[in-house]
Design a protein that fits this description.
The chain is of the alpha/beta class. Helices cover 42% and strands 16% of the residues. It has a 7-stranded mixed β-sheet, sandwiched between helices. A two-stranded antiparallel ribbon has the order 1-2. α1 (7-18) packs parallel to α4. It binds S-adenosylmethionine (SAM). S-adenosylmethionine (SAM) binds next to α7, β4 and α9.
Amino acid sequence: MTSSLSYADLRRDLAGMLARFLPSEEAVAESWRWMDEGLGKPRSWMLAHGEDAVPGAEREQVGQWIRRRREGEPWSYLIGWAPFREKRWKVTRDTLIPRPETELVLEAALEVGRRLGVTRAVEIGTGSGILGVCLALETDWAITATDLSPAALAVARANAGAQGATLTFLEGDLLAPVPDPLELVVSNPPYVAEADRPSLQRELAFEPQMALFSPDAGMDHPTRILAQARARGAKACVLEIGAGQGGELCRRAMGQGWGKAMNHQDLAGHDRILIALA
Ligand SMILES: C[S@@+](CC[C@H](N)C(=O)[O-])C[C@H]1O[C@@H](n2cnc3c(N)ncnc32)[C@H](O)[C@@H]1O
């Protein structure tokens, strides 16, 4: 970076530095995220103030971020929050970083729950709390959210408080801590196959491994959730699933006694949502 640096220079320098370890299109997009989410200088601000000088403290902050980002640490962990459904969510290394495609799970759960007229829903593996908290904010259902990780639950509770949502958090394995009756079960469970580990982006090594990996080619957690929800009389189960898992998980759901199991794909054409109905 040069001695007198404008915000426009900084943004360009950033894109160049990020391009040393990211594909160039991603580097450009991420440089704009740094300006907006990190420094509070969105594109609209940059249009009018791009030639303003960057204060030393901000240059120092960006230098620190660059050093950590170069090691592979995801951007959202550097700033401590991530966007989801146009809201800011606290994230830590104990929680998965919310992914945009998880909004499809939320939309599907809202649609299925409203169609069935449910009055309650359970989210399994709440992590940062995004699904459970959005369900609590967007419905009048009684929401329970669980996780095996107490550290993740602490973050989810903080997010619920910050968003003004009322829901119950329980610690434990899948549906074990949740009392009957069950109506709608929603989850974005761990579903990455161990065999895929070597080919994954290096950023994933910074996320909690228990949030990502599941035995049985990534299908152990989804299969157990479906089985427990069915055995305990849930009316429906809505799950985020991995690419290529839809056919097998639908077969397993039907084998468990669900009346109907549907696999929906995301915009990239990958299996993404499984809906099982009693
Ligand atoms: C893929 S993350 C989903 C986090 C969040 N719901 C989201 O969509 O961003 C899966 C979550 O499941 C939790 N988890 C893993 N195994 C679990 C189990 N056996 N019972 C309950 N939660 C579990 C992890 O701690 C993690 O928070």
